[in-house]
Design a protein that fits this description.
The structure is a single chain. The radius of gyration is 25 Å and the shape is globular. It folds into three domains: about 250 residues, HUPs (Rossmann fold, 3-Layer(aba) Sandwich); about 140 residues, Orthogonal Bundle (Isoleucyl-tRNA Synthetase, Domain 1), CATH 1.10.730.10; about 55 residues, no CATH class. The protein has 17 helices and 14 strands. It binds adenosine monophosphate and zinc ion. Zinc ion (ZN) binds next to helix 7. The site of adenosine monophosphate has 15 residues, from helix 1 and strand 9.
Length: about 450
């Protein structure tokens, strides 16, 4: 079996062939660092971490995930709080990496910061102007969409349609409304860098094109991100890079993850249903969050709910239950191979539901085994599969004792149970239900009996 990946550009699942035999390059659009990552932001980080682990089995991978540390949203956040931009971006970049590490996301090989690559962005913009694909107007530099015939190829959009239904900013200095910003002027208070077009800052799209070229080359193997990035971000990255590089392909495979909703509702600030990873991992072990994100196929929509968290927790209980009490010698563990069926499922466009079904088949075989040697060998294979998927990283006894990071302590649980009792006494049923749901997310089941409320870890 060879690795098969679904490519957005070709709209099909196709065998993966890297440009350069044994070496693979992958770029994932990273966070804009001015607040905490929500659970939707964690989906691409976790899914493409799994792909990176899979690629590393066969290839020498260079995986870049950038940090966007210059952006109008960051400027606005700094203006609002009065905190210097550099402090905000340094803090949220650190927190992002800590939160993702709690979900088992391994650090990328390269983590380029936009503000450290302004010179390569300026050089790319100069090239685009020289080739007739960009123009300067009132301190701005814009990409001339008309100059690139293939524009719309990734998102399958028709240019005429786009103009008709366009919501892009119409500005007097633009030749056409759909032309997008490569460079824009900065006021004295805004962060800015000297450039041939005056003091200013880059647009978001050019940041990724320039950083990808600098660290991975003109043509990269895999470019990944969430579905919402297909248009305009990736369409624009693709146009810029191809035009700067004489038409050379930008990414050989474009991968996009589906969207995550919460209780069947789109996450939004106005609804107050934005779930931050930072908060979730206070009461839910990172491995549970990771598996809940991997339980759906990455291209499908995923609904985040108390049930989804509980299902992931129960699945991990079954896996930990199978290996519990089996002492696997280091050399047996080191020599164990991931079962072929699990690798095959993952190499089939990262089919995680199938891979998990195979993981359970292995757990069932281990549960049935009696011979100590066979049990050791099967348990070692479970751990090998866990290493590949970023699961089974805790000690089984600690797992069942609730001593895994993220599991709430007895005091925290009892405080929440008491708050729920208080809400019930006040007949505030909505608040009481909210506490019950929160406890459920933490893997705690409560029962109301004649002698009061009891709870247990489910
Ligand atoms: P942003 O910081 O908005 O650029 O998002 C960072 C990454 O998270 C991008 O790859 C987005 O496509 C992805 N993303 C944002 N919201 C969601 C969501 N609700 N579900 C899945 N992916 C998302
Ligand atoms: Zn990007």
């Amino acid at each position: 079996m060879t690795l098969q990946l679904h490519d957005t550009l070709r709209g099909a699942k196709i065998p993966f062939e890297p440009l350069d035999g044994g070496e693979v390059t992958m770029y994932l659009c990273g966070p804009t660092v001015y607040n905490y990552a929500h659970i939707g932001n964690a989906r691409p980080a976790v899914v493409f971490d799994l792909l990176a682990r899979l690629l590393r089995r066969r290839y020498k991978l260079t995986f870049a995930r950038n940090i966007t540390d210059v952006d109008d949203k960051i400027i606005a956040a700094s203006r609002e709080s009065g905190e210097p931009i550099g402090d905000i971006t340094a803090r949220y970049a650190r927190i992002y990496n800590e939160d993702m590490a709690a979900l088992g996301v391994q650090p990328p090989d390269v983590e380029p910061y936009a503000t450290e690559h302004i010179d390569v962005m300026i050089a790319m913009i100069e090239k685009l102007i020289a080739k007739g694909h960009a123009y300067e107007a009132e301190g701005h530099v814009l990409f001339d969409v008309e100059s690139y015939d293939a524009y719309g190829e990734l998102s399958k959009r028709d240019l005429r349609e786009m103009v008709a239904g366009s919501r892009v900013e119409v500005a007097p200095y633009k030749k056409a409304a759909r032309d997008f910003v490569l460079w824009k002027p900065s006021t004295d208070e805004q962060p800015g860098w000297d450039s041939p077009w005056g003091r200013g800052r880059p647009g978001w799209h050019i940041e990724c094109s320039a950083m990808a070229e600098k660290h991975l080359g003109k043509t990269i193997d895999i470019h990944a991100g969430g579905q919402d990035l297909v248009f305009p971000h990736h369409e624009n990255e693709c146009a810029q890079s191809r035009c700067a590089h004489g038409g050379a392909p930008f990414a050989r495979y474009w991968l996009h993850n589906g969207f995550l909703s919460v209780d069947e509702t789109k996450m939004s600030k106005s609804l107050g249903n934005v779930l931050l990873v930072h908060d979730l991992i206070e009461t839910i072990p990172g491995e549970v969050v990771r598996l809940a994100l991997l339980n759906a196929h990455y291209r499908q929509p995923l609904d985040w709910s108390a049930e989804a968290i509980q299902a992931a927790r129960r699945m991990l209980d079954r896996l930990y239950g199978a290996v519990r009490g089996i002492d696997v010698p280091d050399e047996v563990r080191a020599a164990a191979e991931v079962p072929e069926a699990i690798v095959a499922a993952l190499e089939d466009d990262i089919n995680t539901p199938k891979a998990m079904a195979e993981f359970f088949a292995l757990a069932r075989a281990l549960n049935k085994a009696n011979d100590p040697g066979e049990m050791e060998a099967l348990a070692a294979r479970m751990y090998a599969a866990g290493d590949l998927m970023g699961l089974l990283t805790n000690d089984p006894e600690a797992w069942f004792a609730g001593h895994v990071e993220g599991n709430a302590s007895r005091d925290e649980i009892e405080a929440l149970v008491a708050k729920r009792d208080g809400a019930r006494a006040n007949k505030d049923w909505a608040a009481a239900d909210a506490y019950r749901d929160r406890l459920k997310d933490m893997g705690i089941t409560i029962e109301d009996g004649p002698d009061g409320t009891t709870w247990r870890r489910s």
